[in-house]
Design goal:
Keywords: Glycosyltransferase, Transferase
Protein name: Glycosyltransferase family 4 protein
Pfam family, one: Glyco_transf_4
Helix content: 40-55%
Oligomer: single chain
Order of helices and strands: EHEHEHEHEHEHEHEHEHEHEHEEHHH
InterPro entries: Glyco_trans_1, Glyco_trans_4-like_N, Glycosyltransferase_grp1
Radius of gyration: 21 Å
Organism: Pseudonocardia acidicola
CATH architecture of the largest domain: 3-Layer(aba) Sandwich
CATH superfamily of the largest domain: Glycogen Phosphorylase B
């Protein structure tokens, strides 16, 4: 019988894309062999889903996204104490803050294996050069104590290797898991989804799904809807976040040139995606958004910004259209093109659905985790970045 591998999954916010991928991965594992404890700073419905599925859930409120020295020091101490007492075989961290504090705590606690998932990167072109350099330096130091780096998307993996954040032989590229099949877009499901969202059946709907946060640039979505300048078109954003009031105010100012509706968090995203005529995501930076994959699986044509791993799935002119970040005018032009050329939009949507196939099934993610959690046949020091394991 194979030995049990006790896993601690550490994530700052157990919500949105990173939380979905962390949960889907944990649920794809054999629970008898891989008992998983989720350690999170906060969360939403995913915490309930994890508990209902039999996963142990531990909340650590001091683990917060903003840089807060007192909370960060407290979280590091508490995580080190918890991981040391539980003596997990694998500590698997997700995203920037949990990745920093969780890996340091795991290293101090003597964890058997440290795995980190880059859902995106903590630095980007919209930061100052000094801040970006600081983050890169931190990630390089953390890379020395990381056994395996799982990168969500090729674009993220390429950047991790190019910036020498983790030794190349420890870098793996993974996809995302959507947790089930999306509802195909048909006239019937389109009407049902619009009824569920309270939208007119005959309206043109441009939709987005994501946190109302700086990364996702929701204000550019509002600006794109204004630039689109199409009476009778409704912009719909599903998701909540810290910029909710700011974006709501921007949507109010956009009237009557554009109508933008903020629907907040919803547990039925996969079921209501058929309501959209075009899916548009204006992110400044990304990993590989679960929402884009779900929209493409559903059969909704996509316009997205050309950032990080998004081009893994949105191939310009083949499976969707790409535009530069922070150019809502160009996003409006691309959305308008798909609305004006429905045959071309349908062709891209069909090509996207066919190309995705089963690339992002839960089992594929589970297999990647099993491989990452398995110790190599030899065990070089984590700090030796130049000597690969034979």
């Amino acid at each position: 019988m194979s030995p049990r591998v006790r896993v601690a999954t550490v994530v700052t916010r157990f919500e949105a894309g990173a939380g979905e991928v962390a949960l889907r991965g944990a649920l794809a594992l054999d629970p008898d062999r891989y008992p998983v404890t989720v350690i999170a700073g906060s969360g939403n419905r995913l915490l309930d889903e994890a508990a209902a599925a039999g996963l142990e859930v531990v909340l650590e409120p001091s683990l917060r996204s903003p840089i807060a020295p007192r909370d960060d020091i407290r979280a590091l101490r508490r995580l080190t104490r918890l991981l040391g007492a539980r003596r997990y075989d694998v500590v698997h961290t997700h995203s920037a803050k949990a990745g920093t504090l969780g890996r340091l705590a795991a290293h101090r606690a003597g964890a058997g294996r440290i795995v980190h998932t880059f859902h995106g990167l903590p630095y980007h072109e919209f930061q100052s050069a000094s801040r970006r350099g600081t983050y890169i330096g931190i990630e390089r130091r953390l890379g020395r104590i990381t056994d395996v780096a799982l990168c969500v998307g090729t674009g993220v993996a390429v950047e991790v290797v190019r910036r020498r954040l983790v030794a190349p032989e420890r870098v793996r590229t993974i996809g995302v898991a959507t947790g089930g099949a999306a509802t195909p877009r048909t006239p019937r499901t389109r009407a049902a989804a619009r009824h569920a969202l309270g939208l007119p059946v005959d309206a043109t709907v441009v939709g987005a799904v994501g946190r109302l946060a700086y990364q996702k640039a929701p204000e550019d979505f509002v600006a794109a809807m204004v630039a689109l300048h199409r009476p009778g078109t409704v912009g719909v954003w599903i998701g909540g976040g810290p910029l909710a009031e700011q974006v709501r105010a921007a949507a109010a100012r956009a009237l009557p040139q554009a109508r933008v509706v903020l629907l907040g968090e919803r547990p039925d995203v996969r079921e209501v995606l058929p309501a959209f005529d075009v899916f548009a995501l204006p992110s400044r930076y990304e990993g590989l958004p679960v929402a884009i994959v779900e929209a493409m699986t559903c059969g909704v044509p996509v316009v997205a910004t050309a950032v990080n791993a998004v081009p893994d799935v949105v191939v310009p002119g083949r499976t969707g259209l790409l535009v530069p970040p922070q150019r809502p005018d160009l996003m409006a032009t691309a959305v308008g093109h798909l609305l004006d050329h429905p045959d071309e939009a349908d062709r891209m949507a069909a090509a996207a659905r066919d190309w995705l196939g089963d690339r992002f099934g839960d089992q594929r993610l589970g297999d990647a985790l099993v491989a990452a959690y398995a110790p190599p046949r030899c065990a070089p020091s984590r700090t030796d970045q130049e000597t690969p394991c034979a």
